[in-house]
Design goal:
With 520 residues, this protein is an alpha+beta fold. Helices cover 17% and strands 45% of the residues. It has 10 helices and 29 strands. Strands 1, 4, 18, 19, 20, 21, 22, 23, 24, 25, 26, 27, 28 and 29 form a 14-stranded antiparallel sheet that branches. The longest helix is centred in the first third of the chain and has 18 residues. The radius of gyration is 29 Å and the shape is elongated. The N terminus is likely disordered.
Length: 520
Amino acid sequence: MMRHTSLRKSLKLLAAPILAIAAGVMLDSCEDNVPKVGSSLANGEVQIALDSLIWDGTEQYVYRGDQKIKVSCPKIKYNTVYEDAFDARSTTNLIGRISVPEFGDLRCSFVSQLMSTTRLGIPDSIPISQVDSMKLILMVPRGALTGDSLAPQQLTVYELTKSLPSNIDNKFDPTGYYNPDKPLGSRSFTLSALGMSDSIYIHRSYVDIDIPMTQNMAVKTVEAYRNKDTKSIFEWPDSFENWFHGIYVEPSFGRGCVANIYETYFVIFYNYKVPKTSTGSDGTVTTTVETKVGAAGVFASSPIVLSSNNISYKPSDYLMNLAANNEAVVTTPGGFRVDFKFPAQELLDIYNQSQSKLAVVSNLSFSIPVEEIQNEHDVTPPPYMIMVKKSKLEEFLKNNSLPDDKDSFYASYNSTSKRYTFSSMRNYILGLIQNGVKEEDLEFTILPANLVFEEEQSSSSSYYNSLYYMYGYGYGYGSSSSSGKKYLTKCTPYISNPSMCKLLMDQARTIFTYSLQQMQ
């Protein structure tokens, strides 16, 4: 009896290492021999329940020490939902057209307001006559391309003639917001450099699409910066937006390629004279004038101004047939998502069969296998999914909320195991154990998301630097060593690239881990 009393008093101390061991076991195996670990840890007095269940409509077993209990695992109820209109505001933009037999037809253009620099980086000594050109530069990161990089494309840029509406979405029609007879510029190009391994490109993390603007726009901009009556318009976003409402960029020619624009900015080019002195072999000194080219950035995209993608997506007959047959199809940008009922009540019914006087919950995870849809344009599953209570979804998306591991969760795609795993659901199940289950606690939506992580840095330099992992691509700035700890800092709907997959909901698995003590 003394031994039992001592065990009870030290339960809190024992629980943490026991559960840590159980968590490690859970990652390594979900086979029938796993539950034997529980009885070996404390001679049967503390048991580790590891309920690994596949929700495929069959009866399966859970283990309590040497006992095995038959439980029912009904199929998960789900519904594939088509979403025609969605919030397409983003700090990155899709541009181009693509037609994939398995995926469908996608056309992308974008509208964007811009931020101005408060000071013009051109010396006042440079006369207006030496301002010779202006370019819009679109930065495309390596890998941010779907389709054929050799496909010829043409983009046309227009100046917006009035302010964009605040309730903009992917179906926004820019007609009436620009003059189609007065383009600022256009450019034909290919993105073949993104696929090159040549030494010229191998160390570059992006490729620029340069679109020449009219010289008149360059001159008009410099004059406004230098005019004492108008230079103040560049000091605030609102005043600048009243002067220059923004741009509309559309694919005017080409099909077969969609690119993700990471950054958009305008540069003005000017020439200036530099004296050059040379001395001949006879000692004669000659002075000549050399013409050089300078550049100054003036406007750029920014997270604090409005930028939105105009996206028209028509799913393929193949995907429409899958959805009609109630296959769990997910696509981006927009298109299909999945609503489903999470089997929390069934999990709690099994949990309550333990007849234990004390139980400590370790974790709950939910993993969904994926069937990749084969195609020739490398349209793959999205890198992340979020799982949000339907009752909370509108508020979650409107506020750009982060998953809180209680009402919302995220999972990254594992291309090796081909599954998404929502691995931090402990607080969710604890809430149901403590407060009971309501119907709204069971109804969830799964949809792709853009996740941004900031990684903690340790550096010998005098400043800290951040490394961002955005939309499946990594961008590093500066030089510092990483501590490896990442923090989720942003979550928005995934519209960075075309993507698609089929979720195998009938093979979805939950792993519910908790310790049990039979007190005497």
